[in-house]
Each structure stands twice: as C-alpha cells, then as structure tokens.
Amino acid sequence: MTLGIVILIAAGVLIYLGLAHRVLDRLHLSDRGALFVIGLLVVGTFIDLPLSRRPEIFINVGGALVPLGIITYVLIKANTALERAKALIASLVTGVAVYVTAGLLAGFGHGYRDVLEPMFIFAILAGTIAYATGRTRRGAFVAAVGGILIYDIIIALQAIGQGLQTTIHFGGAGVFDTTILAGFLALGFVEIFGELLERVQKGPDEGEEGGAGDN
Hints:
By secondary structure, the chain is mostly helical.
C-alpha cells in the first residue's frame, strides 16, 4: 500500500466522521462526492491507459486523469476569473520550481536520499509554493496538484525530445503519491497559517478572497 493510498484512506475516515466539512465546502464537494473521488483515485492507480507505442507512453487514471479532473472541477467552481488565473499561474510556478529543484538535486547524486526521499521534498516544495501563491484553499490545492502534474509533463516531454529509449508513465506510482501529499499539504498550510493570519488580523478582510475562512 503506497503512501498516497494511506493518506486517501485516512482522509476518507475523516470525511466519514464529518471532520472535513469546511475544506470540502470550499472545494465545492459533498461528503459523498469526496468519498467517491477518493475511490476513483485509489482504483485508478491500478489502471494504465496506453497513449503511444513509439515511444511507449502510458497515462495512469488515478495518478493523472482523476487529479486533472478534480482540479478542473475546482477551477470551474472558482468564484472569479481572477481566482482561476491566479491558480493556473501558481500551478505553472509550482511545476517549474519542482523541475528546477529536481535538476539541482540530481547534481548531488543520490546522497540526499539518505536524508529525505524526493517524493517528500517535491511534495513539501509544491505544497509550500502552492500555499504562498494560491492562498485560498481552492487556489493552493489546484496549484499543488497541477504543479506536480506539470512537472511530470515536463519530464515526459524532455524524455521524448531527447529520444530516450524509456517508457513514459504519466502519473506513475511515485507521481501519484507526491501529488496526493502535495495537495493535502497545501490545504493543511492554508488551514494552519490562514487561521493564524486571520487571528492576527482579527478576522478576514471583507471581500478578500485570501482568508482561510472564506476559501
């Protein structure tokens, strides 16, 4: 059982116990809808769809298609066009930042793996940047999940461009775990730091989209 699936099961328990209403409301998901999505993510990790034979390209349903569908839904439900634009820009920034970081880490060899796995490094980085740029729950979630998906696309296009003889796997197991962890970290950062910021400001600014209580 991978880390991503463990996180999803834990999230499912919290949702079942009714402890995630506020977050789900901001994402425009009901308890039943969220549990259905979690089921799709888990089952989808076992389904790979072939896209091409030369080069050999597959796309994982749970690691790529379902997350893409989720963030598309969240974007459609966003309050304003500005919020959508900010979330998309934040996704691009997150994806490029993860890609650059991966390149820097490659220069150190594999020694850093003894301290922290790349999955956690990328997830923490994506979650942090997504929170800093997205700010709202919706924006941060879209930026984190979308950023990891963009990173995966960049890596795949790089492999195709260089003519590498390898199987390209969009949303593979490692990417799935990183995507799930990044998304939940981004939401967690908004919950924790957003609430602290609101208390410092003595409540969210009126009409402001950035407060954790509003989004």
